[in-house]
Write a structure and sequence with these properties.
globular; two-stranded antiparallel sheet; five-stranded mixed β-sheet; about 25% helix
Length: about 160
């Protein structure tokens, strides 16, 4: 990675305004079994769900998966509150299989993208990305979405 002196925000694993964060590659398919995606990419997911299967969701509830899902997440793997570290880890994993990922992107009924989750510790602030992470995602033709939660002080 290039060292650029003008960076306003160097890596900071203690990122003060962040409570917790992670990045996740999400692949959804109407008809491609997650085990096939695993074999195709040669990467084990951190989680997968099969269409029709009962899966746990928030607060211990169960739901039925409407599509097949394959997920590779940095949650509980990368010990940093700097989202860039999580993206770097994820991109390091999936860039090794860029050609296979590109082939998957062209399959009908399949969608994929990177989802970043970021919880504010203070009710303000937000994650930072460098051009390096953005270029890597663009080279893989992956969209990036964010879930940002601001809880602020309790009343």
């Amino acid at each position: 990675m290039n060292h650029i002196n003008s960076r306003r925000t160097p890596y900071d694993d203690n990122y003060e305004t962040c409570e917790r964060t992670y990045a996740e590659l999400r692949i959804y398919s109407d008809d491609m079994d997650p085990r096939l995606i695993t074999r195709w990419l040669g990467i084990d997911p951190t989680e997968a769900s099969t269409k029709g299967e009962h899966v746990a969701c928030g607060m211990g509830r169960q739901r039925v998966a409407k599509v097949n899902g394959w997920f590779l997440s940095s949650e509980n793997v990368v010990a940093s509150r700097d989202l860039r570290r999580h993206l770097d880890w994820l991109l390091d994993k999936i860039e090794l299989t860029a050609g296979k990922l590109g082939e998957l992107q062209n399959k009908a009924g399949l969608t994929m993208g990177i989802n970043c989750v970021w919880w504010s510790a203070t009710g303000s602030g937000g994650p930072t990305l460098w051009p390096e992470q953005m270029v890597r995602m663009a080279n893989l033709e992956l969209e990036c979405s964010f879930e940002v939660c601001f809880f602020g002080e309790e009343v």
